[in-house]
Amino acid sequence: MLNSLLYSHLYAWYEANHRVLPWRETEDAYCIWLSEVILQQTRVAQGMEYYLRFVSRWPRVEDLAAADEAEVLREWQGLGYYSRARNLHKAAKMIVESAFPRTFEELRALPGIGDYTAGAIASFAYDMPYPAMDGNVYRVIARLLDIDEPFDTTAGKKLFHKQIEEILDRDHPRLFNSAIMEFGALQCTPVLGDHCETCPLQSACAGYAHGTAELLPVRKPRPKVRDRWLTYHVFLSTDLNTLIRRREEKDIWYHLYEFPCEESNGLEDERVRGERSIELTHVLSHQKIHARFILHKVQKMPEIPGTICIRWEDLNDYALSRLTLRAIDKLRLTPPN
């Protein structure tokens, strides 16, 4: 009875308030899979542009599989967490060798696909009764049931999964998952403000009743952020060539291109000789990058192992990190076309 009441209020809210998003207007498993990978750790407003670009350039999974990894990374540029793009491309190659997975287990076996993404694809593409647990759903469930267990621990994930399994509308899983995810994105937001007072689920919300909604969900303590110091050398010749290298180390920005780089235990106070230099700070999930970019205008390029010489105007053909793009802008060099 409680679930029926929850469904009726939730679905009425969803009908009146949901956003029209292209991946919701299709049952094409490829498009749904693509959107779910792009939207991992990415806001819809930012992910939309990338989704439309990928679908336009590679409308079928066969097209994506046939692309070079460098092309995929280039289109992903600026979205971060580049392992998602590499896994996306790897999975596309696996799919075209057989067929698009149609079960949760087959979806889960793809590179980069965890329980949440497999459940979301199974639900949205095939209307199968699996929960789609993103951050918005964790927040809604934590508040509805007043759960103060950290949701990002092994025990917490197990607890939340058990609770969502009990609430899931098995007759309409696609609608339920869409509605509860959208509810978390638009109504049950991280900062509630006056949303609780207008919430259609208020009478069923234990967090509201106990005055704890604003404190939920609970996360485990964040790991300490590691500081790193990188010095980049931007060589620019009189005929407008430059040097870049591809990162081959299993580290941040794997397989992205960058200017020749040195890592140290700190940026020296004295300026390394060059035309000019800038310093930037770039924060990743567990690392804080302190970077210095030094511009060297030269007649002839130095010979640096592992680098390639390219036209400055061709930089746009290579996948670069957001940090490198910021540096190019800050150095006030003519940006790539």
Kindly summarize this structure in a few lines:
This protein has 337 residues and is of the alpha+beta class. Helices cover 41% and strands 15% of the residues.
Outline the biggest β-sheet.
Answer: 4 strands, mixed
Report the portion of residues in β strands: 5-15%
Name the CATH class of the largest domain: Mainly Alpha
> Architecture of the largest domain in CATH?
Orthogonal Bundle
Write down the domain tally. 2
Q: End-to-end span in angstroms?
A: 60 Å
Account of the 3D structure:
This protein is an alpha+beta fold and 337 residues long. It folds into two domains: 2-215, Endonuclease III, domain 1; 226-330, Alpha-Beta Complex (Nucleoside Triphosphate Pyrophosphohydrolase), CATH 3.90.79. Helix 8 (115-126) packs across helix 11. The strands form two sheets. The protein has a four-stranded mixed sheet with strand order 4-1-6-5, covered by helices on one side. A three-stranded antiparallel sheet has the order 3-2-7, with no helix packed on it. The mean pLDDT is 93. Helices cover 41% and strands 15% of the residues. The longest helix has 16 residues, at 2-17. It has helices at residues 2-17, 29-38, 44-57, 61-66, 69-76, 83-96, 104-108, 115-126, 135-145, 154-167, 173-186, 206-210, 322-330, and strands at 226-237, 241-246, 257-258, 261-264, 276-283, 287-298, 307-311.
